Amino acid sequence: MPAFNAAEFIGDAIESILNQTEKNFELIIINDGSTDATEEVVLSCPSPQIIYLKNETNLGNNASRNIGFQHAKGELIAIADADDISLPHRLGVQAAFMQANPSIDVLGAGITEFEVDLWRTLLFPQKHEYIAPSLFFKNQMAQPSLMLRKSSFAKHNLAYDAAWENMGDYELWYKAAKAGLRFANLQEVLVNYRLSPTQISTQKITDRNQKLKRHLALRLADLAIELPAPDLDLLHLFLRNRIALTYADYHRLLTILKEIETQNRKANLFPHTHFKAPLLYHRLRLNKYYHLEAQKSNAAFFSSSVKSILKAGVGAFMLFNKEQMG
Questions:
Q1: 212: how many CB neighbours lie within 10 A of its CB?
Q2: How far apart are alpha carbons 53 and 57 in whole angstroms?
Q3: In this structure, are 9 and 156 located in the same domain?
Q4: CB within 8 A of 299, min separation 6: which ones?
Q5: What is the pLDDT of residues 78-103, one digit of tens each?
Q6: How does strand 147-149 pair with strand 76-78?
Q7: Which of 12, 34, 143, 275 has the smallest set of CB atoms within 10 Å of its CB?
């Protein structure tokens, strides 16, 4: 649990871990050079399960997580944020799954985002065969819900990269997927995720978006694709958000998605049928956005969607459908 100026909420986060039904754990808290009362709050929780570490200066979230990993004695490492709430059965459920499924290296779960007047539940793709290729397009793992095998990351020398502060989790999961680590997501909520204006991702949204776009360019480079700046901007916006599409945008994105599919088949970055499943998801998104924007008929939308499904093939469609239906 890294913490930077987290005094307002870290007490609740610590309590949620200490109240777990699973009691065989250590809670490693890394105070990342806080200038508020974070230290006082942590030290006021006199539990022998707490391991308290302190950075004399602010090193950043990624470096602090690496420090926590290095100090962890256990094989299973659960990630927690200093402003979130882990449900009481979280560690027990995840540890039991990891013990029953030794091939899984990274396990996530559903989260409920919350603030004063909002509670929203998010679930993520369940099976590795869909998650890993989906990471080429977008992060599919909710970091505050994750449990990892320490030995798997050590074997491949995988760690957070300080250069990717503010999106280091996505960069790490994509590296792990390329290295062959296996992923899964439980289809139940195990963490309440606080939405707050003090979050790093909220405070530095411009920096995060710039890094996400730069990382997208690097992922495309893995397939020997280099897009002109306007096309990279268009693809980045499409993958991140619901966007308005002109006729030219629609066809340009169709062309880019086809190029990504063709180049993945050549490079074999991810198994072809598995890769076509998230591609189908984004083609259907593209059809939906364009037909809504252009006010096309339902028949035209249905026809273009059926064509996308047929092009994806039976195997990809079945995998896609299984993940979307949970």
A1: 19
A2: 12
A3: yes
A4: none
A5: 999 999 999 999 999 999 999 999 99
A6: antiparallel
A7: 12
CA dihedral for 199, 86, 323, 270, sign (positive or negative): positive
> Nearest to residue 78, comparing CAs of 34, 26, 124?
26
* CA–CA dist 33, 53 (Å, integer): 10
Can you give the residue range of the structural domain that contains 178? Answer: 2-202
The C-alpha atoms of residue 322 and residue 34 are separated, in whole angstroms, by 45
First-last CA distance in the chain: 30
Q: In one letter, which amino acid is 156?
A: H
User: Contact, 190 vs 87, CB < 8 A?
Assistant: yes
Looking at the structure, tell me whether residues 125 and 241 fall in a common domain.
no
Q: Residue 28 forms beta bridges with which residues? A: 51
Other beta carbons within 10 angstroms of residue 141's beta carbon come to 25
What pLDDT, in 10s, does the model give residues 203-239?
Answer: 588 999 999 999 999 999 999 999 999 999 999 999 9
**Which residue reads 């402003």 in tokens?**
83
Residues 192 and 295 in one domain: no
Q: Tell me the DSSP string of 68-105.
A: HHHH--SSEEE---TT-EE-TTHHHHHHHHHHH-TT--
Q: What span, in angstroms and rounded, lies between the C-alpha atoms of 54 and 164? A: 22
pTM exceeds 0.85, yes or no: yes
Instruction: Say whether both 80 and 172 belong to one domain.
Output: yes
Kindly state the helix (H) or strand (E) to which residue 31 belongs, with its residue range: strand 27-32
Length of the chain: 326
Determine the Cα–Cα distance for residues 68 and 53; give it in Å rounded to an integer.
8
Q: Do residues 34 and 4 lie in contact, with contact meaning Cβ atoms separated by under 8 Å?
A: yes
Q: Which of 124, 253, 116, 100 is nearest to 190 (CA)?
A: 124
Give a yes or no: residue 142 inside a domain. yes
